[in-house]
Write a structure and sequence with these properties.
Shape: globular
Structural class: mainly beta
Number of strands: 9
Number of domains: 1
Strand order of the largest sheet: 1-9-3-4-5-6
Radius of gyration: 13 Å
Largest sheet: 6 strands, antiparallel
Number of helices: 0
Strand content: over 45%
Order of helices and strands: EEEEEEEEE
Length: 95
């Protein structure tokens, strides 16, 4: 029987015109939620370990590509709409 315990890790990064590696999570995430306030509009991204490759869901464009889960966090590609240059992006990882 599973314990039902969920690990959570939160943080933030500043979006850039380049790929960003978040390598600070103390476990391999199963789910990642990303939040950015882009000019007053809240954009969100959601990545689950069952989504293939770098696919994720976005409130801006629906199905999108650019977020990859790694053993110690995740990578956000430069073209992802949750990687807006100069904007603070908040995230929550669950394991």
């Amino acid at each position: 029987m599973a314990s039902g315990v969920t690990q959570k890790y939160t943080g933030s990064f500043v979006g850039a015109a380049a790929d960003i590696d978040i390598e600070t999570c103390p476990f391999q995430p199963k789910r990642i939620q990303l939040f950015v306030n882009n000019g007053g509009a809240l954009e969100q991204g959601y990545k689950d370990e069952e989504m293939s490759g770098d696919a994720y869901l976005s409130t801006t464009s629906g199905a999108d590509a650019g977020v990859t889960i790694n053993s110690d966090g995740f990578t956000v590609a430069n073209g992802a709409d949750v990687n807006v240059a100069g904007q603070t992006v908040y995230f929550e990882c669950e394991g």
